[in-house]
Amino acid sequence: MTFELPLRQGPRPDTTDCAPHEQVSQNSSAEIHAFFKEKAFALPFVERCRSGISVPGAEALVLPVAHACGPREAFMIGREFAHVHPSYDGSSHMMLPLAAVEELIAKGWGEPHPMASAGHIPANAVMAYAPRGRSEVDVMIKILTTSWDFARGKLANPAQVHIHG
């Protein structure tokens, strides 16, 4: 898998260190948030649903049964592989192959979910930061597309991920 991201400019945003895991600074404008969601929910086969695991108002990206062919660790709950938080936050949680997690964190586009860091959920659960402008929406769609490909079984996870429960 080739997954390269540009370096995100500026400092990382402030986030909470517990559940609910939210981004509290450098949030998207309403226009950028709507633009990102328009592109995110245009991915083929994606069903737009209320998240089964996130805060009220979060919208899940869910695959139909016939397309949810990825490994168990490609999904948060059921067939939900990612969700977008409400506009006051603008970040997204998603599942990525471990190599993509490393690149996301190294280039400043996201962070591990605190519950993953604590070992309560798979280590490949991440927060991807809210896009601050249209060019960042393009990067976020690249990240989200990687999660989508992982959930569709198009990407392998070269390292075993421990699943709790």
Structure description:
It holds the Pfam family Luciferase. This is Luciferase domain-containing protein. Residues 78-145 form the Luciferase domain. This protein is an alpha+beta fold. It has a single domain (30-148), classed as Aspartate Aminotransferase, domain 1 (Alpha-Beta Complex), CATH 3.90.1150. It is built from 4 helices and 6 strands, in the order αββββαβαβα. A 6-stranded antiparallel beta sheet has the order 1-2-3-4-6-5. Strand 1 (47-50) and strand 2 form a beta hairpin.
Number of E-state strands: 6
Name of the CATH first level: Alpha Beta
Q: Per CATH, what is the topology?
A: Aspartate Aminotransferase, domain 1
Mean pLDDT: 93
Protein name: Luciferase domain-containing protein
Organism: Pseudooceanicola nanhaiensis
InterPro entries: Luciferase, Luciferase_dom
Pfam family, one: Luciferase
Summarize the entry for a quick read.
This is Luciferase domain-containing protein. Helix content is 25%, strand content 15%. It contains four helices and six strands; from the N terminus they run αββββαβαβα.
